[in-house]
Structures are given as C-alpha cells and as structure tokens.
Amino acid sequence: MDLAYLWFFIVGFFFIGYFVLDGFDFGVGMSLPFLGKDDTDRRVLINTIGPVWDMNETWLIVAGAAMFAAFPEWYASMFSGFYLALLLILVALILRGVSFEYRHQNKGVEWTKWFDRMIVVGSAVPSFLWGVAFANLIQGVPMDADHNFTGTLLTLLNPYGLLGGLTTLLLFFTHGVVFVSLKTEGDMRLRAQSLARKSGAAAVLVAAAFLGWTILQHLDSPHVWLIVTLALVAAVALIGSWLFNAVGREGLAFTAIALTIVFAVATILSALFPNVMPASNDPANGLTIENASSTPYTLNLMTWVAGISLPLIIGYQSWTYWVFRKRITRDTVLASSH
C-alpha cells in the first residue's frame, strides 16, 4: 500500500480514538446540569473522568501533529480555512481544562457555579463544532486554485453542517451519560440510565438522518457499498446501545456506543476517500490524499516512529483505565474532602 494512503487511515485512527475517548469526557461535562443535583453530585461526575480527561485530549494533539507531518497541505488548508471554528474549539477546551482545576478552590458557591458553567460550555462547543467541521469536509467547501478556503464561519453553518454538529453533540452527550452509569452506583447510576434512554432516542433519530443524508450525497461514489455498510453498522450499534442501557447493561451499552462512534467516523472517512478536503465549487481545486501528502521519505520515517510508539501509548492508556476502573460514589467523594 502507498504510504500516503496508509497515513490517511492512521490519521483517521487518531481522530477515531479522540472522538471515542474525549467524546464521553464531553458528555460527562454536558451532563452536569442534568445529573448534578448538588455540589457533591457534580464532584462525583467530574471525578468519573478526573484521572483520564487530560490524557484523552492528547489524542487530538497527536492527530493534529500526524496530519501536519503526513499531509501538510491538508493541515494548512483546513486549519487556516476553519480558523475561527477551530479557535472556538481551542478556547472552549482551555476554559474546560482550567475549570476542572479551579472549581475546587473553595472560594464560594458562585465561584464554583461559574466554573461548572464553563465546563458545560467547554464540553458542548467542541462537541457541536467538530461535527460541523467534519460534515463540511465530506460535503466539500469552496476553495480557490491554491487550495485556500474562500468561505466564512457562516459558510460552514449550512443545514448539513448543522445536522452533523447536532449528531455529534447528542452522540457525545449520550456516550458520557452511559459512562456515568458505568462509573457510579445508586441513585446517580439510575438517573444516568434514565437520561441516556431519552438522549439516546434523540441521538438515534438525528444520527439516522445525518447518515442517510451522507449516503444520498455519495450514491455515485465507486465505494458507496462500503459507506452504506459502515453507516448500517453504526446505526445497529447505536440502537444496541440504547437497548442495553434500557435493561441496565451499562458495560455493553458503553461498548456499543463507542463502536457507534468508531463506525460513524469510519463512514465519514470512507465518504471522504480518496479526498481529504474536496472543493464544492470546482473539484480541481480540492485536495486529495496524493496531492496533499508529504514526501515518501517523511512518510517512511513517520511509519517507523508510529510503529514503535503507538503500541506503547495504547498500552499505557489501557493500563491507566484499568487502574482507575472502580466506581465513584458520593461516600468516596465526601470522604476524600475530609
């Protein structure tokens, strides 16, 4: 296989890892107003992701670095063209990270409430805008002959882009709420399961509409069969997650919704292939895997580095999740404050 095509899938793998792992982080953050009856409840929610949220975000850094090294043209066009949207995501992530650290300073109720609000906003904004960005990548954006994006933020907020944003928002929210049910006990677990049934039903409907629209846009694709297959697997996994949650099998529900995100992103990548940033105004202005990639020497060197480092990263992160696998309760949170 040509190394440029291999690295398209590797970059896709990094984004899949990011959306699966940081996706439930975002969902937990967005669930604070719905599941947090008091400060102790909110501390329980935050503690479910406390040991791992910052590690999950490193997948975005790795994905961006891999894109920069393997596909510099794609990186330059996307990060300059989607500058305002990506800046909003970055600001939201910074506010979210700061809020996790500063809300515990015990400087009063209003102090804590403000940082809780920033956690919610800092989780919801990236959840929505990532969906908008990737939906527009599939659909194509206006570009000039030098591969520069010629639209604005409003260009990205088209009906298909907004539907993509709503899809990721609901998927991540449900993903996070199911994670809460997996990591807590008692009343919090039951309320999380109830909330996941409601948000999961909405996610099924919206995701079905988005995946259906995506398929309709690519009926003339030579690999439309692959797009349809991946979309159907994602849909079945999402329905399965809802059913598992309904019968109280939160472990299977979490696994199923994680697979939903995996196959949903795989659907997006298959719809994009062999392009990386198609132009909606003139196909000749778009970027493909071949004309956006680095030199063979660079890709070869990166392949050796990835082959050595990636198993270590996955192993270390798996070990971390195993260490912090126990459920969080109100009693453990209250005990830790004394």
TrEMBL record:
InterPro entries: Cyt-d_oxidase_su2. It holds the Pfam family Cyt_bd_oxida_II. Keywords: Cell membrane, Electron transport, Heme, Iron, Membrane, Metal-binding, Transmembrane, Transmembrane helix, Transport. It is found in: Cell membrane. The chain crosses the membrane at residues 6-35, 81-98, 119-139, 159-180, 201-219, 225-244, 251-273, 301-324. Its main location: membrane. It is a multi-pass membrane protein. It comes from the Bacteria. Belongs to the cytochrome ubiquinol oxidase subunit 2 family. This is Cytochrome d ubiquinol oxidase subunit II. It comes from Conyzicola nivalis. The lineage of its organism: Bacteria, Bacillati, Actinomycetota, Actinomycetes, Micrococcales.
